[in-house]
Amino acid sequence: MSNPQHLTYSKEHEWLTAVEDGVATVGITAYAADALGDVVYVQLPDVGQTVTAGETCGELESTKSVSDLYTPATGEIVEVNQAVVDDPALVNSAPFAEGWLFKIRLDGAPEGLLTAEEYAAHTGA
């Protein structure tokens, strides 16, 4: 699966949508989902929680390992995807669609994110 051009990416394998009314959506990339294997548990940050770019804000557990979830931007969590908590397999089956993780009200412009081409070069995929 190629990386959608309209998203930006972190080196920790999260994606971020364009900002709409100060809010962006965050998920993990198909590359990360493939590396994790079958995701069986998702722990997301709490609505109202303030998160800082580059810091952990949850975790993903798969049949292979447990991985920290990092936030690609600083801001306040305004929504979490309950469908992913209820059915973690969505992270694998639709990482760029129904498998999104949370929405964040940004505190300023995100920094250090990669374009789709830069992320592909970063992962070698």
UniProtKB/TrEMBL annotation:
Name the chain's protein.
Glycine cleavage system H protein
Cofactor binding remark: Binds 1 lipoyl cofactor covalently.
The reply to whether Nucleotide-binding figures as a keyword in the UniProt entry is no
Residue ranges occupied by any Lipoyl-binding domain in the UniProt entry:
23-105
What Pfam families does the record tag this protein with? GCV_H
This molecule's function is given as: The glycine cleavage system catalyzes the degradation of glycine. The H protein shuttles the methylamine group of glycine from the P protein to the T protein.
Q: Gene symbol?
A: gcvH
Sorted alphabetically, the keyword list is:
Lipoyl
Which organism's genome codes for this protein? Streptacidiphilus cavernicola
Q: Which positions carry N6-lipoyllysine?
A: 64
Annotated SUPFAM superfamilies: Single hybrid motif
Summarize subunit and interaction data from the UniProt record for this chain.
Answer: The glycine cleavage system is composed of four proteins: P, T, L and H.
| PROSITE patterns referenced in this protein's UniProt entry, alphabetically | BIOTINYL_LIPOYL, LIPOYL
Q: Which family does it belong to?
A: Belongs to the GcvH family.
InterPro entries named in the record: 2-oxoA_DH_lipoyl-BS, Biotin_lipoyl, GCV_H, GCV_H/Fam206, GCV_H_sub, Single_hybrid_motif
Q: Which cofactor does it need?
A: (R)-lipoate
Q: Which HAMAP family match?
A: GcvH (MF_00272)
Matching entries from CDD domains are given as: GCS_H (cd06848)
